[in-house]
Amino acid sequence: MSGYWAGILSLLAINIVFAYGIFLPVATGQLNLGGAGFYAIGAYSAAYLSFQYDMPLVVTVAAGFVLAGVIGFLIAFPILRTRGVYLVLATFAFAEVVGGLILNSETLGGAMGLPVPTYVDYEVPIAAAVIVTLIVFYIMSTRFGLVMRAVHDDEVVSDLMGVNIRGVQVTAFAIGAAFAGLAGVLYAHTYTYVEIQGFNALMSIYVLLYVLLGGTQTAWGPLAGAAFFTLLPEVFRAVVPAANAFIASLIGYEGVVSPPDASWRFVILGVFTVLMMVFRPEGMITRTMIERLRLRRAPDSASREATV
């Protein structure tokens, strides 16, 4: 496999793990804009242990996963006392605090960042993405997943039915933080260098877009959203110059057709994003879509059994 496709697959796998880290809190009705903070915690813990103590991969993965999860659990109690836009601002402020602490820490390299000696190829992020995906699908199929959806749909009714809303939200937030930390660990070992400037507010916004536009009603949503936003810019990288040449030939232009600026593919991606918000406000994959697909498959299976 070429280095280009290995890099794309690694990035896709990391984005899927990161998206599931944000999906779990969102599935309980909490908009988490602090993803970059947990991502940075995982990445820097792996980088520090690998660079300073030459720890093996299994230790850095466990450390980043557990540390981000524990911090997520501890801050969930004060942060989840807020609601709506204040919750969004509180999680955003957490990410900014983490970034500020790392930026002013000489131990963590400050603005210069840290090198990461241990490199992992694309097989490791892909394996991690598969495992995390299966875990999230399992969680959403259990009684706890059903309670998460109930809390997301109506907190008041869930409370009346005896659901421990705070416990469900804190658990989902902590597990999501651990997955975001794991994504950071994979990022550190894949790109072998971490610097805090890369863990900014845009990162938190992008991963939240993966989840919201992919769909928050089922576990398929983050998978679709991460794949869409990771792969589509690469598709446009090949399609946009070809479309430019086709249009030039269509209008009879016979001169040299220079390729369009690379930024055009992000302009087109922005247009696609706005159109999706307009025509699919509940996301690409919804619960209704999944149920319709199941209903279509059910009569087909029944007819095959009757034939046999």
**Distance separating the two termini:** 44 Å
Strand order of the largest sheet: 1-2
Largest sheet: 2 strands, antiparallel
Q: Work out the number of β strands.
A: 2
| Rg value | 22 Å
Q: What is the helix content?
A: over 70%
Number of helices: 12
Structural class: mainly alpha
Query: For the residues shown, what is the average pLDDT?
Result: 87
What's the overall geometry?
globular
What portion of the residues fall into strands of 2 or more residues? under 5%
Poorly predicted spans = none
Order of helices and strands: HHHHEHHHHEHHHH
Transmembrane segments: 6-24, 31-51, 57-77, 84-104, 124-146, 167-189, 201-223, 235-256, 262-279
Protein name: Branched-chain amino acid transport system permease protein
InterPro entries: ABC_transp_permease, LivM-like
Organism: Amorphus orientalis
Record the SSE blueprint.
Layout: H1 3-27, H2 35-53, H3 57-79, H4 84-103, E1 114-115, H5 123-141, H6 143-153, H7 155-160, H8 165-191, E2 193-194, H9 201-214, H10 220-250, H11 264-279, H12 287-307
Antiparallel strand pairs: 1-2
Helix pairs in contact: 1-5, 1-8, 1-9, 1-10, 2-3, 2-4, 2-8, 3-8, 5-6, 6-8, 9-10, 10-11
